[in-house]
UniProtKB/TrEMBL annotation:
Signal peptide location: 1-24
Keyword terms of this UniProt record: Signal
Organism field: Leeuwenhoekiella parthenopeia
SUPFAM superfamilies noted in UniProt: Carboxypeptidase regulatory domain-like
InterPro entries: CarboxyPept-like_regulatory
Protein's UniProt keywords contain Signal: yes
Superkingdom of the source species: Bacteria
Protein name (record): Carboxypeptidase-like regulatory domain-containing protein
């Protein structure tokens, strides 16, 4: 056996062993809290993308969700950037996590004030200003990606499967052997499914969920995941965008969902007339 082949076998065994210990982790119930001061803590959504489990925060920002070491948590809130974090062994041992979300800020481009003398006549002033041609990477001989815009999960998968130089992409081989590529592919699948679920959820107004389906506002997203997530038949009905077909399906699913929550020990009721 050549030295190169032996090296690859050695790396594969080491990485495979490490991956095996990672995926055999025990599931624990993680207590967490969103600690932002300038946010309505109640009803934020916490998803475990690896286990496909979700929950919502309580009024004080607390939440509880099952996790394993290496799982990916997804936290979303209106006017805040969604956050993804990997559950470390330390978090699992501590069984507690505090999360602070970053505000979603729309930044405007800087306005450069020049020393050009303007007289206030638009036609004359426009001729005085010299506009710089934007940098074109293609003209500079640089590679230009012309495919669709990749999501964060798709970029991670692309990096894991295309990294490395030479005839044999070493990083890509290691990622494939260790199971990282498989894990990233699953994250891409879940991320794409999540977008489809949210699109289907928004086909029906919150008022319809609350008043006709008797789903309290805080459980609407959870109900949407119950109906649509990994359910090709339900997603196919949503794709028709036929209001009557969608409502008919949701009316059948709502009682089953409420019964499901009851069996989980969750009391789903209305605090007020708006189903909050």
């Amino acid at each position: 056996m050549s030295k190169t082949a032996f090296l690859y076998c050695f790396i594969a065994l080491c990485v495979s062993s490490a991956a095996g210990s990672l995926f055999a982790q025990e599931t624990v119930m993680l207590e967490g809290k969103v600690v932002n001061d300038s946010i309505e803590h109640e009803y934020l959504h916490i998803l475990n993308l690896s286990l496909q489990k979700g929950t919502v925060t309580r009024e004080n920002g607390d939440f509880t969700i099952p996790v394993r070491s290496g799982d990916t948590l997804y936290i979303s809130a209106v006017q805040f950037k969604h956050q993804e974090l990997v559950v470390s062994a330390e978090i699992v041992n501590r069984k507690y996590l505090e999360v602070k979300l970053e505000p979603e800020v729309t930044e405007l481009e800087d306005v450069q004030i020049s020393n050009i003398e303007l007289n206030g006549r638009l036609g004359d002033d426009m001729n005085r200003i010299k506009l710089e041609k934007p940098f074109d990477p293609a003209e500079a001989g640089l590679p230009v990606y012309k495919g669709p815009i990749l999501t964060q999960e798709e970029r991670r998968l692309y990096t894991a499967t295309h990294s490395g130089a030479g005839i044999i992409p070493v990083d890509a081989v290691i990622n494939a052997i260790s199971g990282r590529t498989k894990m990233l592919k699953e994250q891409v699948r879940i991320s794409n499914m999540e977008r489809r679920v949210q699109k289907a959820r928004n086909l029906v107004s919150d008022t319809t969920y609350i008043r006709q389906l008797q789903i309290p506002a805080r459980y609407i997203d959870d109900f949407a995941h119950y109906v649509y997530f990994d359910k090709p038949e339900a997603l196919a009905i949503a794709a028709t965008q036929n209001p009557l077909s969608i409502l008919e399906m949701l009316l059948k699913q709502a009682p089953a969902y409420l019964q499901h929550k009851s069996e989980e020990g969750v009391e789903v009721n209305f605090k007020d007339k708006d189903g909050q």
